[in-house]
């Protein structure tokens, strides 16, 4: 099974900051990676797929990069609505696996 | 508009059974792989099971193999999850989701249904 790790597990940031979240796969997954945002009590929302493609309707302050085993999600100019938990997910092979999540909260 | 409405959750004793349903609309159900994902209270997301378009291929996370069965009815545009021999660790919100056209990620989710396993 492919294990996904994320760092940091949590980050405190202010509105306007840039936040970078890292996701690492235990083996090469090429670009088969997605990023989600989840707010309390809500279903996850797809932000980025194929490592760097922005899902329709997602603000351009979100961007994804990486390939192979190392990936990043960057949020520039953090907005109040961006405080949430972020998950990466590999879609290279079954079982599909998610990272443990990164909580972005208000400093 | 794509809609997924999970139902069938509830409180069940350890060892019991539940059948979750997820009627879908707003997209061509029979063209999509379908998935169940769960989230235990206060925890992260966990992929549970997957089924291909015609139901001939299924995949499960190791912890539910032999206990859960994913199935679909392409006439009724519905996805199901039969859960037997339930354990406390199966307690979670269960979401159904179709695979995106671009790959194994999920751009549409239902609201989820809560399964609680407790005596």
Descriptive account of the structure:
The complex is a heterodimer of chains A (107) and B (119). Chain A is globular and about 35 Å long. In chain A, the strands form two sheets. In chain A, strands 2, 4, 5, 6, 9, 10 and 11 form a seven-stranded mixed sheet that branches. Chain A has strands at 4-7, 10-13, 19-25, 33-38, 45-49, 53-54, 62-67, 70-75, 85-90, 97-98, 102-106. Chain A is an all-beta fold. The model of chain A has no long low-confidence stretch (mean pLDDT 97). Chain B has 119 residues and is mainly beta. Helices cover 0% and strands 45% of the residues of chain B. Chain B contains no helices and ten strands. In chain B, a hairpin with a 5-residue loop joins strand 4 (34-39) and strand 5. The model of chain B has no long low-confidence stretch (mean pLDDT 97).
Please mark out the parts of chain B with pLDDT under 50 across 5 or more consecutive residues, or reply none: none
Number of helices of chain A: 0
Round the mean pLDDT of chain A to the nearest integer and report it.
97
Largest sheet of chain A: 7 strands, mixed
**Strand composition percent of chain B:** 35-45%
The class by helix and strand makeup of chain B works out as mainly beta
Q: In percent terms, what proportion of residues of chain A is strand?
A: over 45%
Tell me the span between the first and last alpha carbons of chain B: 40 Å
Assign a percent range to the helix content of chain A.
Answer: under 10%
Number of strands of chain B: 10
Global Rg of chain A:
13 Å
Name the helix and strand elements of chain B from N-terminus to C-terminus, one letter apiece.
EEEEEEEEEE
Q: What's the helix count of chain B?
A: 0
How does the overall form of chain A come out from the CA principal axes? globular
State the shape of chain B: globular
Structural class of chain A: mainly beta
Gyration radius of chain B, to the nearest Å? 13 Å
Largest interface: A-B, 24 and 22 residues
- Major β-sheet annotation of chain B: 6 strands, mixed
